[in-house]
Write a structure and sequence with these properties.
disordered N terminus, mainly alpha
Length: about 170
């Protein structure tokens, strides 16, 4: 049977925060619902980045219904700071923005090539009697012999270093 504090009734097992801080975990422990005993690294990273006292103050000042979201944000930022102590989650956001910019450039080049090929195809059809320029209005028996070649060489560039561990895991 579960209690609202996040621990089993009668079980003396402290939450991850109280275990790391080596203190007794009370029934009204502010950390217990968000830092269960089976996820010690979650609180360890948050404690390393923010400090237990600051986390406690932040949680105490928030309404209960907002605390879960606040803890999720702190865990995400703490994990990002552990991976990248200088930039934290801003580094991840910057990296994703650079990927978006590169992909938008590649998309624009591909769209330009499509437009170019359509124009080339239209002019090729009209020169071979397939388009509205044909005097008889019916297709000419001529066969197209030229191949359309892409004017841009587009290779997908993938940053292999960024394909490692996900930044979204808590």
């Amino acid at each position: 049977m579960k209690e609202s504090g996040g621990r089993k009734q009668g079980a003396p097992s402290p939450c991850a925060a109280c275990k790391l801080l080596r203190r007794r975990c009370s029934q009204d422990c502010v950390f217990a619902p968000y830092f269960p005993a089976d996820e010690p690294q979650k609180f360890a990273n948050v404690h390393k980045v923010f400090g237990a006292s600051n986390v406690n103050k932040m949680l105490q000042e928030l309404p209960v219904h907002q605390r879960g979201d606040a803890v999720s944000s702190m865990v995400y930022e703490a994990n990002a700071r552990v991976r990248d102590p200088v930039y934290g989650c801003v580094g991840a956001i910057s990296s994703l923005q650079q990927q978006i910019d590169a992909l938008q450039t590649q998309l624009a080049l591909a769209q330009a090539e499509v437009v170019h090929l359509r124009v080339r195809q239209t002019t090729s059809f009209s020169h071979h009697g397939f388009g509205p320029a044909s005097p008889s209005g019916s297709p000419s028996p001529k066969v197209m012999t030229s191949e359309a070649k892409p004017i841009f060489n587009m290779d997908m560039v993938v940053d292999q270093a960024s394909l490692g561990e996900s930044m979204w895991s808590c």
